[in-house]
TrEMBL record:
Pfam families assigned to the protein according to its UniProt record, in alphabetical order: YNCE
Matches recorded under PROSITE patterns: PROKAR_LIPOPROTEIN
Domain YNCE-like beta-propeller: 10-336
Hydrolase found in the keyword field: no
InterPro entries (UniProt xref): Haem_d1_sf, Host-pathogen_enzymatic-act, WD40/YVTN_repeat-like_dom_sf, YNCE-like_beta-prop
Organismal lineage: Bacteria, Pseudomonadati, Pseudomonadota, Alphaproteobacteria, Sphingomonadales
Name this protein carries in UniProt: YVTN family beta-propeller protein
Keyword annotations of the record: Signal
Signal peptide region: 1-24
Species, as recorded: Erythrobacter ramosus
Keyword Signal listed: yes
Domain of life: Bacteria
Length: 340
């Protein structure tokens, strides 16, 4: 069911209540998911595949076709499924984490080009639709009564996404418009957009929800914003071309993925200053590896760096800054999700 423009979240919740609980088969799969070893999932945008890597051994144990130009990934709260934004198409596709079997394809409509994606703790999926200049709220993605709500950003290139802990607010980075946009998902008030650097792309909300971090790849900067007023509190000079930013689960640092340097800039979130630079590859190697997406391990001890040009993911020890190993994945590995 698709709801655009008007409508209320309360109405959608009522629809889901009528739909009842998840199928018994899904519940019975929980044990298998819980028994899975630490696992990394990687979407390969050139190979159009989805990979599964056993982090205990470092081996890619499964790789299957996915969709055209797949990008960002998100795992379900129970660990049984992973959702994939099909950037070359119009759908969010959902796969089982144990077998990578596709169990659902949720179409978002013409020219959607979904990219940034979050599978919220409440069980719902949020995703940007760059081609439609909007954000979708997908309620009950695995039920028989899936409901879609679309919220306009009105901005070009709404690319990456962050969601508040209470699922009432979304924030997008809008590459083409050079803005960051705050979208009210509950009352449907008009979105608020502010200009932030050049080509803002990376975005992450602090664990306490009090600071919104943004990296602007075109101006080699990171920004700390007030998530409510959208005021820029701090501006930080980073390495060159910071494509992504990710906040450590402990909340003490944020890390940017500096593509042109082949390094990570480590920002102290309390002082908004760069305190370390972690070399993942040399500047000379940077274009041969082309690092993009970054992802923290659940305990904050490691950073995973997708190296799109070399079809690898670098596993970096945060404490020492050493690259522990490079994990082989599909062609153009980019989006990543992890099960601890």
């Amino acid at each position: 069911m698709m709801r655009r423009g008007g409508g209320s979240l309360a109405g959608a919740v009522a629809l889901l209540a009528l739909a009842g609980c998840a199928p018994v088969a899904e519940v019975e799969q929980a044990g298998a998911a819980a028994a899975m070893p630490p696992t990394l999932f990687v979407a390969a945008k050139r190979g159009n595949t989805l990979s599964k890597v056993d982090l205990a051994t470092g081996e890619e144990v499964l790789r299957l076709p996915s969709c055209t130009n797949p990008h960002e990934l998100a795992t379900s709260p129970d660990g049984q499924h992973v959702a994939l934004a099909c950037y070359g198409g119009t759908s969010v596709d959902v796969f089982r984490t144990d077998t990578l079997e596709r169990v659902k394809s949720i179409d978002l409509g013409d020219n959607a080009r979904p990219h940034g994606i979050v599978w919220h703790d409440n069980g719902n999926i949020f995703v940007t639709a760059e081609g439609r200049q909007s954000v979708f709220h997908i309620l009950g993605p695995l039920t028989g009564a899936t409901v879609l709500f679309e919220f306009s950003t009105g901005k070009q290139g709404s690319h990456m996404l962050a969601i508040s802990p209470d699922a009432r607010t979304a924030w997008t980075t809008d590459l083409g418009s050079r803005t960051v946009t705050r979208v009210d998902l509950f009352t449907r008030r008009a979105p608020i957009s502010v200009t932030v650097g050049e080509e803002p792309e990376g975005i992450a909300l602090s664990p306490d929800g009090k600071t919104l971090w943004v990296s602007a790849r075109g101006s080699n900067q990171a920004f700390a914003l007030d998530p409510l007023t959208m005021e820029v509190r701090k501006t930080v000079a980073t390495g060159r071309f910071p494509l992504r930013i990710a906040v450590r689960p402990q909340g003490d640092v944020a890390v940017t993925s500096d593509l042109q340097d082949g390094s990570l800039s480590v920002i102290d979130t309390a002082t908004a200053k760069v305190i370390r630079t972690i070399p993942v590859s040399s500047p000379a190697e940077a274009q041969q590896r082309f690092q993009v997406t970054i992802l923290w391990s659940d305990d904050g001890s490691k950073v995973y760096v997708a190296e799109t040009a070399s079809d690898t993911v670098a596993e970096v020890d945060y404490a020492s800054g050493k690259v522990l190993r490079r994990l082989k994945v599909g062609e153009g590995g980019d989006g990543m999700a992890i099960l601890p």
